[in-house]
Amino acid sequence: MSGHGSSTGAPLHGTVRIRGGSIVDPRHGRRGEVGEILIADGRVVETLPAGAPSFDAKGLVVMPGGVDLHTHVAGPAIRAARLLCPRGRHAACLPSIDETGRRYARLGYTTLFDAAIASSGARAAHEELDQLPILDKGIFVLAGAHAAAIKAARAGDPPRLAAILAALVEGARAHAIKIVDPGGVAAWREASADDADPAPLLRTFAEAAATLRLPHPLHVHLPGLGRPGNAALTLRCLEALAGTPAHLTHLQFHAYGGRTPRGLRSRAPEIAAWINAHPGPTIDVGQVVFGPAVTVSADAPAQSRLAQATRARRLSLDIESETGLGIVPHDYRAGSLTAAVQWAAGLELMLLVRDPWRLALTTDHPNGGPFFAYPLIIRMLMDRAHREAILAGAHPRAGARTHLAGIAREYTLEEIAIVTRAAPARILGL
């Protein structure tokens, strides 16, 4: 609920009749008609006693709470990131666990999922999340570089792999399974060659995860993150995953053409066209926001490449038998061609994927930027002139390397409610 109103009686978290607001609730087909919402003990109900307290929402928009299905706010990597960035611009991207909950709540969010927790760190992550106020929360457990899981996947043994994944989910009390470039990360940790073709390995993981019938399908971080020309690999992997339930995360980092960083360009329209033509997979973008960020990822080889390219300080962690983690402070500068292409590619995906029900708004916090930049992204999605003004002020070659200037679509308020609320809730199986 946005804006200011007047209330009488009990506070909003108890029993209340919200009157006179414009209700936008895509899941139930409410598109802005004025009405009332009745809440008792935290749940929407059909009736309340006549004397129930009321909140005057006239002139306001009333929506369900926001749902962030891919963020990083707890666990060993975030704790290490706070140590690496104890103060300054990058530290501002890593608010304390208490402030994280309060800032999400001020944005209208009520639910978040930390998308990358190793099973050995799950207990501590849950304890941290218990300290996060106001919001509901959960975790995805990392599995793609887990020694036993990768061995079963390479052996082509889906039943054995499914049993390992089930044990990881149960032991971590996780909502879903997350894999991060399983062939590449495992090979990097083993100091061996990458799997020649990662696509079959991805499909083996997806098929095994599907047999578990979890609320949320396999959460997939594809190979080749951030590499020029990775769109070709992305399209091959998408073909391998076709027909198998999967959610593809921070997809703009996998939507690039070119052969070198100097030649980087966006191939987001081709990725969006594939998504439009193939019902099933859902995505989030990991939208880049110009300014400071802290890249925190289980894709340790990609983090190593980033640190070498930017000469930034970094921290690497290796969690025995499970995964590697890399932490690199970063700045997305509008004057950088690389950052401008990344920024534009994310917006292109969100504007060109036709069905908003298959899409969730994220920044892959804090990787593409902080979650509290969501209002800035929402404005760019709803206002073509605004985003094109930003493009005009970015690197002078960004317009020629991207397709953003030619996209006329502007999101409606209902579509914003879908990608921030209804779609992520449905994708998560809430």
Q: Helix- and strand-based class?
A: alpha/beta
Largest sheet: 8 strands, parallel
Lateral arrangement of strands in the main beta sheet? 7-8-9-10-11-12-15-19
Number of helices: 15
Tally the beta strands.
19
First and last CA, distance: 21 Å
Low-pLDDT segments: 1-12
Strand content: 15-25%
Inertia-based shape? globular
- Rg: 21 Å
Q: Can you describe what's shown?
A:
- The chain has 430 residues and is α/β, with parallel strands linked by helices.
- 37% of the residues lie in helices and 22% in strands.
- It has helices spanning 76-84, 97-106, 122-130, 147-154, 158-172, 182-190, 198-210, 230-241, 268-277, 300-310, 337-352, 374-382, 384-392, 398-401, 413-428; strands spanning 6-7, 16-25, 30-40, 43-45, 54-56, 61-62, 66-71, 109-117, 136-142, 176-180, 218-221, 246-248, 256-257, 265-266, 282-284, 291-297, 315-319, 323-332, 359-360.
- The strands form four sheets. It has an eight-stranded parallel β-sheet with strand order 7-8-9-10-11-12-15-19.
- Helix 9 (268-277) packs parallel to helix 11 (337-352).
- It is globular, with a radius of gyration of 21 Å.
